[in-house]
Write a structure and sequence with these properties.
Elements (H helix, E strand, L loop, with lengths): L3 E2 L9 H17 L4 E17 L2 E19 L2 E7 L4 H17 L31 H16 L5 E20 L4 E19 L2 E11 L8 H14 L9 E7 L1 H14 L2 H5 L18 E5 L22 E5 L2 E2 L6 H7 L13 E5 L6 H8 L2 E8 L9 E12 L2 E14 H6 L1 E4 L9 E2 L3 E9 L2
Parallel strand pairs: 1-6, 8-13, 12-17
Antiparallel strand pairs: 2-3, 2-5, 3-4, 5-6, 6-7, 8-18, 9-10, 9-12, 10-11, 13-14, 14-15, 15-18, 16-18
Helix pairs in contact: 1-2, 3-4
Length: 453
């Protein structure tokens, strides 16, 4: 069984150890009579620091490891996991998975992915950039981030903290089809949350930067200043009277709006018939100018992956083309349940890029298009029903009048139905937020219900 790998920096690489662990698990499963099997071993390590008002609040070193094993006896499936990677523990974990499989009911859709779907030519996506930052330096950065924000204005009277985090994860996946591969990836971040006060009015806001490579992070001081600016802008918030009006979502919130769409077109939601977009493939879900493109191989992308959790090849696809849903987000299991082909999405979507063929609007153009309506900058609560599409969440942001921000608003609720909301998108901004697996710009909807006074 050959090992396929991705080249990484010369930093200590645990993939050889993890490959041995996975190989041992696969060999043991076969020895115990499993007809098919797969295993996933991983180690992760990280440093997290938070500082509040200049004092260290938390300092955490983290190191985790784990092994998950799944075996099949025909169409009977059993799974077990362990945090101990010693040989004896691996054998015991496989034995437990086999014992479970022998007593489970048959599932006609169970099994590994078709061998033809496996990733054979694994690309290097430049995901591994260890950050040589120790606790002292992380504390210094967190303090600098917070202090830069607090120094912005005397009304910034308190802080919920400045934080720095650095994480590295290495995983190896293998199965009885001859696939064995792994790679390392990193994620680093700096964030700040500040409180502004003016008389009896107190408002909080935050900002953050995140990247695979610490060299790509925004300056820590600028993160603090942005958090401070955002908190100050919310002072003097008002409530609105209940009305129907245009509503816009800033990019970091638009990501969640499209996240509900991804959940609705996932294979699990489709075969369980628990989706407001049930059977919607081929239908016009969005306006004709909207495109949603999956691009799994963006170098340093936060959602990039050379293969999915089953070893299937990830590849470019247009999930939404000219507003039309072209297919679903499928693992091999959900694909079998639906009578379709897997899409390389076991574990989820990989870099979904939301764009427009009608021309993205700059900030001033976007506000002029909004006219008089609500710009939402924060959402609260979990009032989203992915079965019916009903959407109702607490919100705050800014009331826009004649294309200009008039005043901050808070203590309101916005409501609608996601299926209608998607069709009522009228414009996208040019301010794409790349800090996640869904890259979305500001989104303007023609109308929603705003409940207030």
């Amino acid at each position: 069984m050959s090992v396929q790998t991705i080249s990484t920096p010369s930093t200590a690489d645990p993939r050889a150890l993890l490959s041995d662990v996975v190989s041992l698990a696969l060999n043991e499963a076969r020895a115990q009579g499993a007809s098919e099997c797969d295993a996933d071993a991983s180690v992760s390590q990280g440093l997290s620091v938070s500082v509040r008002l200049g004092e260290v609040d938390t300092l955490e070193y983290q190191r985790d490891r784990g092994l998950g094993v799944t075996v099949y006896f025909g169409k009977r499936k059993g799974s077990a996991s362990t945090a101990d990677l010693a040989a004896a523990a691996v054998r015991e974990t496989v034995a437990k998975a086999c014992a479970i499989a022998r007593f489970t009911a048959e599932d006609p859709y169970a099994g590994l992915i078709d061998p033809g779907a496996l990733q054979r030519d694994i690309p290097d996506l430049d995901l591994d950039h260890p950050w040589d930052v120790d606790a002292a330096r992380a504390i210094e950065l967190a303090r600098g981030c917070e202090s830069a924000g607090l120094a912005l204005d005397a009304r910034l009277t308190n802080s919920e903290g400045g934080s720095v985090s650095s994480q590295r994860h290495t995983g190896v996946y293998g199965n009885s089809l001859g696939f064995l591969a792994g790679y390392s990836s990193t994620s680093h971040s700096v964030s700040c949350s500040l409180v502004a006060q003016d008389a009896q009015d107190m408002q909080r806001d935050y900002w953050y930067t995140v990247a695979r490579d610490a060299a790509d992070l925004a300056d820590a001081a600028s993160v603090g200043r942005t958090a401070g600016t955002r908190a100050l802008a919310r002072l003097g918030g008002r409530r609105l009277g209940t009305r129907r009006a245009p509503v816009a979502f800033v990019p970091e919130l638009a990501r969640g709006l499209f996240g509900h769409f991804v959940a609705a077109v996932s294979g699990g939601a489709q075969y369980r018939k628990a989706s407001f977009l049930l059977g919607a493939a081929g239908e016009q879900v969005f306006p004709s100018f909207l495109q949603a493109l999956e691009r799994p191989h963006i170098r340093k992308g936060l959602g990039s992956s050379p293969f999915d959790q089953e070893g299937a090849a990830t590849h470019d696809r247009d999930l939404v083309r000219d507003g039309v849903l072209t297919g679903y987000v499928l693992s091999s299991y959900s694909a079998r349940r639906l009578g379709l082909q897997p899409t390389g999405n076991a574990g989820g979507i990989h870099n979904l890029l939301i764009g427009t063929s009608a021309g993205a609007l700059g900030p001033q153009q976007f506000l002029r298009q909004l006219g008089s309506g609500l710009l939402v900058t924060e959402l609260m609560g979990q009032g989203v029903n992915t079965v019916t599409g009903d959407y109702s969440r607490g919100a705050s942001g800014f009331w826009v009048e004649n294309g200009a921000i008039a005043y901050p608003v808070h203590e309101i609720t916005i409501a609608g139905n996601l299926r209608n909301m998607y069709r009522e998108i009228v414009a996208l901004g040019d301010d794409v937020d790349s800090r996640g697996g869904i890259r979305a710009p500001s989104v303007l909807l023609s109308e929603m219900t705003i409940a207030g006074e």
